[in-house]
UniProtKB/TrEMBL annotation, chains A, B:
Gene3D superfamilies: Tetracycline Repressor, domain 2 (1.10.357.10). Keywords: DNA-binding, Repressor, Transcription, Transcription regulation. Residues 43-62 bind DNA. Pfam families: TetR_N. InterPro entries: DNA-bd_HTH_TetR-type_CS (IPR023772), Homeodomain-like_sf (IPR009057), HTH-type_TetR-like_transc_reg (IPR050109), HTH_TetR (IPR001647), Tet_transcr_reg_TetR-rel_C_sf (IPR036271). This is Transcriptional regulator, TetR family.
Length: 205, 205
Protein backbone atom coordinates (compact mmCIF):
# COMPACT_ATOMS: atom_id res chain seq x y z
CA UNK A 1 0.00 0.00 0.00
CA UNK A 2 2.50 2.60 -1.12
CA UNK A 3 -0.15 5.33 -1.18
CA UNK A 4 -0.21 5.31 2.58
CA UNK A 5 3.41 6.08 3.10
CA UNK A 6 3.50 9.68 1.88
CA UNK A 7 0.27 10.27 3.79
CA UNK A 8 1.91 9.36 7.07
CA UNK A 9 5.08 11.26 6.43
CA UNK A 10 3.16 14.48 6.02
CA UNK A 11 4.01 15.82 9.47
CA UNK A 12 2.17 13.04 11.28
CA UNK A 13 3.76 11.71 14.47
CA UNK A 14 5.49 8.35 14.30
CA UNK A 15 3.33 5.33 15.01
CA UNK A 16 3.19 4.60 18.72
CA UNK A 17 2.42 1.18 20.22
CA UNK A 18 -1.08 2.48 20.76
CA UNK A 19 -1.45 3.31 17.09
CA UNK A 20 -0.30 -0.16 16.15
CA UNK A 21 -2.70 -1.88 18.48
CA UNK A 22 -5.53 0.39 17.25
CA UNK A 23 -4.59 -0.44 13.69
CA UNK A 24 -4.68 -4.14 14.51
CA UNK A 25 -8.06 -3.80 16.18
CA UNK A 26 -9.44 -2.09 13.09
CA UNK A 27 -7.97 -4.77 10.82
CA UNK A 28 -9.35 -7.56 12.97
CA UNK A 29 -12.82 -6.00 13.14
CA UNK A 30 -12.81 -5.33 9.40
CA UNK A 31 -11.80 -8.95 8.69
CA UNK A 32 -14.70 -10.25 10.73
CA UNK A 33 -17.21 -7.95 9.03
CA UNK A 34 -15.89 -8.50 5.49
CA UNK A 35 -16.00 -12.25 6.10
CA UNK A 36 -19.58 -12.13 7.27
CA UNK A 37 -21.11 -9.59 4.88
CA UNK A 38 -18.69 -9.33 1.94
CA UNK A 39 -16.86 -6.30 0.64
CA UNK A 40 -19.70 -4.26 -0.78
CA UNK A 41 -22.07 -4.44 2.18
CA UNK A 42 -19.58 -3.32 4.83
CA UNK A 43 -19.04 0.40 5.45
CA UNK A 44 -16.19 2.13 7.24
CA UNK A 45 -18.80 3.61 9.58
CA UNK A 46 -19.92 0.11 10.55
CA UNK A 47 -16.32 -0.99 11.14
CA UNK A 48 -15.67 2.12 13.25
CA UNK A 49 -18.82 1.61 15.26
CA UNK A 50 -17.98 -2.02 16.00
CA UNK A 51 -14.51 -1.22 17.33
CA UNK A 52 -15.52 2.06 18.93
CA UNK A 53 -13.49 4.47 16.81
CA UNK A 54 -14.50 7.34 14.56
CA UNK A 55 -14.31 7.29 10.78
CA UNK A 56 -11.46 9.86 10.82
CA UNK A 57 -9.48 7.48 13.05
CA UNK A 58 -9.86 4.77 10.43
CA UNK A 59 -8.75 7.26 7.77
CA UNK A 60 -5.73 8.07 9.91
CA UNK A 61 -4.64 4.45 9.53
CA UNK A 62 -6.01 3.52 6.10
CA UNK A 63 -6.47 5.37 2.83
CA UNK A 64 -9.97 3.94 2.42
CA UNK A 65 -12.11 0.84 2.37
CA UNK A 66 -10.12 -0.89 -0.40
CA UNK A 67 -6.91 -0.22 1.48
CA UNK A 68 -8.35 -1.60 4.72
CA UNK A 69 -9.68 -4.63 2.85
CA UNK A 70 -6.20 -5.36 1.48
CA UNK A 71 -4.74 -5.04 4.99
CA UNK A 72 -7.41 -7.38 6.37
CA UNK A 73 -6.87 -9.99 3.66
CA UNK A 74 -3.08 -9.95 3.74
CA UNK A 75 -3.13 -10.16 7.55
CA UNK A 76 -5.42 -13.20 7.42
CA UNK A 77 -3.31 -14.86 4.76
CA UNK A 78 -0.07 -14.14 6.60
CA UNK A 79 -1.58 -15.82 9.64
CA UNK A 80 -2.43 -18.87 7.57
CA UNK A 81 1.15 -18.88 6.26
CA UNK A 82 2.55 -18.69 9.79
CA UNK A 83 0.32 -21.49 11.02
CA UNK A 84 1.24 -23.58 7.97
CA UNK A 85 4.96 -23.07 8.54
CA UNK A 86 4.66 -23.72 12.26
CA UNK A 87 2.67 -26.94 11.88
CA UNK A 88 4.93 -28.36 9.20
CA UNK A 89 8.15 -27.36 10.98
CA UNK A 90 7.03 -28.80 14.30
CA UNK A 91 5.79 -32.14 12.98
CA UNK A 92 8.08 -35.14 13.26
CA UNK A 93 6.73 -36.56 10.00
CA UNK A 94 5.33 -34.53 7.12
CA UNK A 95 2.17 -36.63 7.23
CA UNK A 96 1.40 -35.55 10.82
CA UNK A 97 1.99 -31.92 9.93
CA UNK A 98 -0.33 -32.17 6.94
CA UNK A 99 -3.07 -33.76 9.03
CA UNK A 100 -2.82 -31.05 11.69
CA UNK A 101 -2.85 -28.42 8.98
CA UNK A 102 -5.81 -29.98 7.18
CA UNK A 103 -7.68 -30.14 10.48
CA UNK A 104 -7.06 -26.45 11.12
CA UNK A 105 -8.03 -25.46 7.60
CA UNK A 106 -11.17 -27.58 7.58
CA UNK A 107 -12.28 -25.81 10.73
CA UNK A 108 -11.61 -22.44 9.13
CA UNK A 109 -12.52 -22.72 5.46
CA UNK A 110 -10.21 -20.87 3.14
CA UNK A 111 -12.81 -20.79 0.39
CA UNK A 112 -14.33 -17.83 2.19
CA UNK A 113 -11.23 -15.86 1.29
CA UNK A 114 -11.56 -16.73 -2.40
CA UNK A 115 -15.22 -15.75 -2.25
CA UNK A 116 -14.40 -12.39 -0.63
CA UNK A 117 -11.70 -11.74 -3.20
CA UNK A 118 -13.99 -12.39 -6.15
CA UNK A 119 -16.57 -10.02 -4.79
CA UNK A 120 -14.10 -7.27 -3.97
CA UNK A 121 -11.92 -7.52 -7.10
CA UNK A 122 -13.96 -5.07 -9.22
CA UNK A 123 -13.33 -2.40 -6.56
CA UNK A 124 -9.60 -2.97 -6.16
CA UNK A 125 -6.60 -1.61 -8.03
CA UNK A 126 -4.46 -4.07 -9.96
CA UNK A 127 -1.72 -3.49 -7.40
CA UNK A 128 -4.00 -4.24 -4.45
CA UNK A 129 -5.18 -7.50 -6.00
CA UNK A 130 -1.56 -8.41 -6.58
CA UNK A 131 -0.66 -7.77 -2.93
CA UNK A 132 -3.38 -10.17 -1.75
CA UNK A 133 -2.51 -12.84 -4.34
CA UNK A 134 1.12 -12.54 -3.29
CA UNK A 135 0.22 -13.28 0.36
CA UNK A 136 -1.74 -16.29 -0.80
CA UNK A 137 1.14 -17.45 -2.94
CA UNK A 138 3.42 -17.39 0.09
CA UNK A 139 1.26 -20.04 1.76
CA UNK A 140 1.80 -22.29 -1.25
CA UNK A 141 5.52 -21.54 -1.12
CA UNK A 142 5.73 -22.86 2.43
CA UNK A 143 3.96 -26.07 1.44
CA UNK A 144 6.02 -26.38 -1.73
CA UNK A 145 9.31 -26.10 0.15
CA UNK A 146 8.32 -28.97 2.43
CA UNK A 147 7.20 -31.01 -0.57
CA UNK A 148 10.49 -30.28 -2.33
CA UNK A 149 12.36 -31.55 0.71
CA UNK A 150 10.26 -34.74 0.65
CA UNK A 151 11.19 -35.17 -3.02
CA UNK A 152 14.88 -34.75 -2.24
CA UNK A 153 14.49 -37.43 0.43
CA UNK A 154 12.73 -39.66 -2.14
CA UNK A 155 9.60 -39.73 0.02
CA UNK A 156 7.60 -37.89 -2.65
CA UNK A 157 7.87 -38.65 -6.35
CA UNK A 158 9.28 -35.92 -8.59
CA UNK A 159 6.61 -33.38 -9.47
CA UNK A 160 6.29 -29.61 -9.60
CA UNK A 161 6.20 -28.84 -5.84
CA UNK A 162 4.03 -25.77 -6.40
CA UNK A 163 1.48 -27.82 -8.32
CA UNK A 164 1.31 -30.25 -5.40
CA UNK A 165 0.98 -27.34 -2.96
CA UNK A 166 -1.97 -26.04 -4.93
CA UNK A 167 -3.52 -29.50 -5.17
CA UNK A 168 -3.23 -29.92 -1.40
CA UNK A 169 -4.67 -26.46 -0.75
CA UNK A 170 -7.55 -27.18 -3.12
CA UNK A 171 -8.37 -30.39 -1.26
CA UNK A 172 -8.70 -28.31 1.91
CA UNK A 173 -11.69 -26.62 0.26
CA UNK A 174 -13.69 -29.71 1.16
CA UNK A 175 -14.13 -27.87 4.44
CA UNK A 176 -16.33 -25.29 2.77
CA UNK A 177 -19.08 -27.74 2.18
CA UNK A 178 -20.64 -27.36 5.59
CA UNK A 179 -23.68 -29.32 4.48
CA UNK A 180 -21.53 -32.27 3.51
CA UNK A 181 -19.18 -32.07 6.41
CA UNK A 182 -21.73 -33.15 8.97
CA UNK A 183 -21.47 -36.62 7.48
CA UNK A 184 -17.89 -37.02 8.69
CA UNK A 185 -17.31 -37.64 12.34
CA UNK A 186 -14.89 -34.79 12.94
CA UNK A 187 -12.45 -32.48 11.23
CA UNK A 188 -9.69 -34.77 12.43
CA UNK A 189 -11.14 -37.87 10.77
CA UNK A 190 -11.78 -35.93 7.58
CA UNK A 191 -8.27 -34.44 7.68
CA UNK A 192 -6.79 -37.95 7.92
CA UNK A 193 -8.88 -39.17 5.01
CA UNK A 194 -7.91 -36.22 2.83
CA UNK A 195 -4.21 -36.50 3.63
CA UNK A 196 -4.38 -40.22 2.87
CA UNK A 197 -5.83 -39.51 -0.59
CA UNK A 198 -3.12 -36.90 -1.16
CA UNK A 199 -0.25 -39.09 -0.02
CA UNK A 200 -1.35 -42.53 -1.18
CA UNK A 201 -4.08 -41.94 -3.75
CA UNK A 202 -7.10 -44.16 -3.98
CA UNK A 203 -5.83 -47.18 -5.90
CA UNK A 204 -4.66 -50.39 -4.26
CA UNK A 205 -1.42 -50.72 -6.19
CA UNK B 1 -40.50 -26.43 -8.32
CA UNK B 2 -43.94 -27.64 -7.27
CA UNK B 3 -45.35 -24.10 -7.26
CA UNK B 4 -45.25 -24.10 -11.02
CA UNK B 5 -47.43 -27.09 -11.54
CA UNK B 6 -50.76 -25.72 -10.34
CA UNK B 7 -50.02 -22.52 -12.23
CA UNK B 8 -49.85 -24.38 -15.51
CA UNK B 9 -52.88 -26.51 -14.86
CA UNK B 10 -55.05 -23.44 -14.39
CA UNK B 11 -56.65 -23.59 -17.84
CA UNK B 12 -53.37 -23.02 -19.65
CA UNK B 13 -52.87 -24.95 -22.89
CA UNK B 14 -50.52 -27.92 -22.76
CA UNK B 15 -46.87 -27.16 -23.47
CA UNK B 16 -46.15 -27.37 -27.17
CA UNK B 17 -42.72 -28.11 -28.65
CA UNK B 18 -42.45 -24.40 -29.23
CA UNK B 19 -43.09 -23.67 -25.54
CA UNK B 20 -40.41 -26.13 -24.55
CA UNK B 21 -37.83 -24.68 -26.88
CA UNK B 22 -38.73 -21.15 -25.72
CA UNK B 23 -38.37 -22.30 -22.12
CA UNK B 24 -34.97 -23.77 -22.90
CA UNK B 25 -33.88 -20.58 -24.62
CA UNK B 26 -34.88 -18.57 -21.57
CA UNK B 27 -33.06 -21.00 -19.25
CA UNK B 28 -29.93 -20.93 -21.40
CA UNK B 29 -29.89 -17.13 -21.61
CA UNK B 30 -30.53 -16.82 -17.88
CA UNK B 31 -27.66 -19.23 -17.11
CA UNK B 32 -25.27 -17.16 -19.19
CA UNK B 33 -26.32 -13.91 -17.53
CA UNK B 34 -26.37 -15.28 -13.97
CA UNK B 35 -22.91 -16.76 -14.56
CA UNK B 36 -21.53 -13.45 -15.76
CA UNK B 37 -23.21 -10.99 -13.40
CA UNK B 38 -24.46 -13.04 -10.45
CA UNK B 39 -27.98 -13.41 -9.14
CA UNK B 40 -28.66 -9.98 -7.77
CA UNK B 41 -27.50 -7.94 -10.75
CA UNK B 42 -29.55 -9.77 -13.38
CA UNK B 43 -33.17 -8.72 -14.02
CA UNK B 44 -35.94 -10.62 -15.82
CA UNK B 45 -36.19 -7.67 -18.20
CA UNK B 46 -32.53 -8.12 -19.14
CA UNK B 47 -33.01 -11.85 -19.69
CA UNK B 48 -36.11 -11.18 -21.82
CA UNK B 49 -34.35 -8.54 -23.86
CA UNK B 50 -31.39 -10.82 -24.56
CA UNK B 51 -33.54 -13.67 -25.85
CA UNK B 52 -36.10 -11.41 -27.49
CA UNK B 53 -39.14 -12.22 -25.37
CA UNK B 54 -41.36 -10.08 -23.16
CA UNK B 55 -41.39 -10.24 -19.37
CA UNK B 56 -44.93 -11.76 -19.40
CA UNK B 57 -43.57 -14.57 -21.60
CA UNK B 58 -40.95 -15.32 -18.95
CA UNK B 59 -43.68 -15.28 -16.30
CA UNK B 60 -45.67 -17.71 -18.43
CA UNK B 61 -42.81 -20.18 -17.99
CA UNK B 62 -41.41 -19.29 -14.58
CA UNK B 63 -42.92 -18.06 -11.32
CA UNK B 64 -40.17 -15.45 -10.94
CA UNK B 65 -36.45 -14.80 -10.88
CA UNK B 66 -35.71 -17.28 -8.08
CA UNK B 67 -37.67 -19.96 -9.94
CA UNK B 68 -35.80 -19.26 -13.18
CA UNK B 69 -32.49 -19.30 -11.29
CA UNK B 70 -33.28 -22.74 -9.89
CA UNK B 71 -34.18 -23.97 -13.39
CA UNK B 72 -30.93 -22.53 -14.77
CA UNK B 73 -28.78 -24.08 -12.03
CA UNK B 74 -30.40 -27.51 -12.08
CA UNK B 75 -30.20 -27.60 -15.89
CA UNK B 76 -26.47 -26.78 -15.77
CA UNK B 77 -25.84 -29.36 -13.06
CA UNK B 78 -27.86 -32.02 -14.90
CA UNK B 79 -25.69 -31.39 -17.93
CA UNK B 80 -22.57 -31.87 -15.85
CA UNK B 81 -24.05 -35.09 -14.51
CA UNK B 82 -24.83 -36.33 -18.04
CA UNK B 83 -21.33 -35.48 -19.27
CA UNK B 84 -19.82 -37.17 -16.21
CA UNK B 85 -21.85 -40.35 -16.76
CA UNK B 86 -21.12 -40.37 -20.48
CA UNK B 87 -17.37 -39.91 -20.09
CA UNK B 88 -17.02 -42.54 -17.38
CA UNK B 89 -19.29 -45.04 -19.16
CA UNK B 90 -17.49 -44.65 -22.47
CA UNK B 91 -13.94 -44.91 -21.14
CA UNK B 92 -12.18 -48.24 -21.39
CA UNK B 93 -10.33 -47.59 -18.14
CA UNK B 94 -11.61 -45.45 -15.26
CA UNK B 95 -8.36 -43.45 -15.40
CA UNK B 96 -9.01 -42.34 -18.98
CA UNK B 97 -12.56 -41.35 -18.13
CA UNK B 98 -11.39 -39.33 -15.13
CA UNK B 99 -8.79 -37.52 -17.24
CA UNK B 100 -11.35 -36.63 -19.90
CA UNK B 101 -13.72 -35.48 -17.20
CA UNK B 102 -11.07 -33.44 -15.42
CA UNK B 103 -10.12 -31.84 -18.72
CA UNK B 104 -13.74 -30.85 -19.38
CA UNK B 105 -14.24 -29.53 -15.87
CA UNK B 106 -10.99 -27.57 -15.85
CA UNK B 107 -12.12 -25.85 -19.03
CA UNK B 108 -15.46 -25.02 -17.45
CA UNK B 109 -14.83 -24.30 -13.79
CA UNK B 110 -17.50 -25.59 -11.46
CA UNK B 111 -16.51 -23.15 -8.73
CA UNK B 112 -18.53 -20.56 -10.58
CA UNK B 113 -21.63 -22.54 -9.68
CA UNK B 114 -20.72 -22.56 -5.99
CA UNK B 115 -20.10 -18.81 -6.17
CA UNK B 116 -23.47 -18.17 -7.81
CA UNK B 117 -25.19 -20.33 -5.20
CA UNK B 118 -23.65 -18.47 -2.29
CA UNK B 119 -24.74 -15.16 -3.68
CA UNK B 120 -28.26 -16.30 -4.49
CA UNK B 121 -28.94 -18.32 -1.35
CA UNK B 122 -30.33 -15.42 0.73
CA UNK B 123 -33.03 -14.91 -1.93
CA UNK B 124 -34.06 -18.54 -2.28
CA UNK B 125 -36.55 -20.68 -0.40
CA UNK B 126 -35.21 -23.65 1.55
CA UNK B 127 -36.88 -25.93 -0.98
CA UNK B 128 -35.23 -24.20 -3.94
CA UNK B 129 -31.79 -24.46 -2.38
CA UNK B 130 -32.47 -28.12 -1.75
CA UNK B 131 -33.43 -28.71 -5.42
CA UNK B 132 -30.10 -27.26 -6.59
CA UNK B 133 -28.05 -29.14 -4.00
CA UNK B 134 -29.83 -32.33 -5.00
CA UNK B 135 -28.78 -31.86 -8.66
CA UNK B 136 -25.23 -31.32 -7.49
CA UNK B 137 -25.38 -34.39 -5.32
CA UNK B 138 -26.39 -36.48 -8.35
CA UNK B 139 -23.07 -35.64 -10.01
CA UNK B 140 -21.27 -37.06 -6.99
CA UNK B 141 -23.51 -40.11 -7.09
CA UNK B 142 -22.39 -40.90 -10.65
CA UNK B 143 -18.73 -40.62 -9.64
CA UNK B 144 -19.33 -42.59 -6.45
CA UNK B 145 -20.96 -45.47 -8.33
CA UNK B 146 -17.91 -45.80 -10.59
CA UNK B 147 -15.62 -45.62 -7.57
CA UNK B 148 -17.67 -48.29 -5.81
CA UNK B 149 -17.29 -50.53 -8.85
CA UNK B 150 -13.52 -49.96 -8.78
CA UNK B 151 -13.52 -50.98 -5.10
CA UNK B 152 -15.47 -54.15 -5.88
CA UNK B 153 -12.86 -54.93 -8.52
CA UNK B 154 -10.10 -54.27 -5.96
CA UNK B 155 -8.71 -51.46 -8.13
CA UNK B 156 -9.55 -48.85 -5.47
CA UNK B 157 -8.97 -49.39 -1.78
CA UNK B 158 -12.03 -49.52 0.46
CA UNK B 159 -13.25 -46.04 1.32
CA UNK B 160 -16.54 -44.16 1.42
CA UNK B 161 -17.18 -43.75 -2.34
CA UNK B 162 -19.06 -40.51 -1.81
CA UNK B 163 -16.13 -39.04 0.12
CA UNK B 164 -13.85 -39.93 -2.79
CA UNK B 165 -16.34 -38.43 -5.26
CA UNK B 166 -16.29 -35.18 -3.29
CA UNK B 167 -12.50 -35.23 -3.05
CA UNK B 168 -12.23 -35.70 -6.82
CA UNK B 169 -14.76 -32.93 -7.50
CA UNK B 170 -12.90 -30.62 -5.15
CA UNK B 171 -9.63 -31.22 -6.99
CA UNK B 172 -11.38 -30.07 -10.17
CA UNK B 173 -11.66 -26.64 -8.54
CA UNK B 174 -8.01 -26.12 -9.43
CA UNK B 175 -9.50 -25.00 -12.74
CA UNK B 176 -10.92 -21.90 -11.10
CA UNK B 177 -7.53 -20.43 -10.52
CA UNK B 178 -7.24 -18.85 -13.94
CA UNK B 179 -4.17 -16.91 -12.85
CA UNK B 180 -2.39 -20.10 -11.83
CA UNK B 181 -3.53 -22.16 -14.74
CA UNK B 182 -1.50 -20.31 -17.30
CA UNK B 183 1.54 -21.98 -15.80
CA UNK B 184 0.43 -25.41 -16.96
CA UNK B 185 0.74 -26.27 -20.62
CA UNK B 186 -2.86 -27.26 -21.21
CA UNK B 187 -5.99 -28.50 -19.49
CA UNK B 188 -5.06 -31.97 -20.66
CA UNK B 189 -1.64 -31.95 -18.98
CA UNK B 190 -3.15 -30.52 -15.82
CA UNK B 191 -5.97 -33.09 -15.90
CA UNK B 192 -3.41 -35.90 -16.12
CA UNK B 193 -1.44 -34.50 -13.20
CA UNK B 194 -4.53 -34.12 -11.03
CA UNK B 195 -5.82 -37.60 -11.82
CA UNK B 196 -2.39 -38.99 -11.04
CA UNK B 197 -2.44 -37.37 -7.58
CA UNK B 198 -5.94 -38.72 -7.02
CA UNK B 199 -5.16 -42.27 -8.14
CA UNK B 200 -1.57 -42.70 -6.96
CA UNK B 201 -0.97 -39.96 -4.42
CA UNK B 202 2.31 -38.14 -4.17
CA UNK B 203 4.51 -40.55 -2.23
CA UNK B 204 6.95 -42.97 -3.83
CA UNK B 205 5.88 -46.05 -1.90
Amino acid sequence: MPEQVPKRLRGRPKQTDNDISMQQTIIYTASTLFKEFGYEMVTLQQIGKKCGVSKPTIYYHFAGKADLFVAAMTTMLQNVRKITAHMLDEAEHLRDGLIRLAEARLANPHGEIEMMMREAEPFLEEEQIHAIRESEHQIHDVLASHFKKAMDEKIFREEDPLFLAEAFSTLMLMGNRAHDQQKYESHHVMAEKIVRVFLKGVTTT
